[in-house]
Amino acid sequence: xxxxxxxxxxxxxxxxxxxxxxxxSSMEGHMAGARKVREVVRWCSERDIGYLTLYAxxxxxxxxPKAEVAFLIKLIGRFLDENLKEFNKKGGQMLFIGDKSPxxxxxxxxxxxxxxxxxxxxxxxxxxxxxxGGRAEITAAVKKLVENNIKAEEITEELIAESxxxxxxxxxxxxxxxxxxxxxxxxLLWQSAYSELYFCRHHWPDFSEKDLDKALxxxxxxxxxxxx
Length: 228
Known about the structure:
44% of the residues lie in helices and 16% in strands. It is globular. The protein has one domain (7-132, 172-221): Undecaprenyl pyrophosphate synthetase. The chain is built from 7 helices and 6 strands, in the order βααβαβαβααββα. α1 (15-21) packs across α2. The chain is of the alpha/beta class and 228 residues long.
């Protein structure tokens, strides 16, 4: 069928399992996962994928041990410190999607700086989901419509889509989940209605360029009827 992926979503799963299998700490697993992000962004850019959405921190991740949550928040800031200059140089745009209000001011400042610094870049747009949940996003969209006094008979799918965090971003063509789990886990629930799903058994830190190409090849062979 030779389908082309314009928007790729990735549920980056398996950092802690990778760490356990390699006799490392959870923190080392998350660090390995962060390093993998840089590689995957480069691979996707080289394959002319226009949008890449990465599930970095979900609304459910707050339930993890406090020390792990604190480390993840620091790791996000460190990732920006270490990669923003190179990211900007290569023409990547960063967008952070989700409710950022609970994060420390220092991280929110770095997020704002990253979005401002890369806003004119068009080579690849990388959406990083932070404190994101699909149900929370849809709930926020409904609240926005109510606050704007939109009448029930005026509500359409298009209007809801325009009220989501991802307004203006095309729906993902393909969603990859690593580490062998086969579920969406609250990832882009509205947007994934007709996305193709691909499950990779490798943990996220072990996800390879070969794994990416295998997923893209599989996608190219699928028949996308879109309900027709």
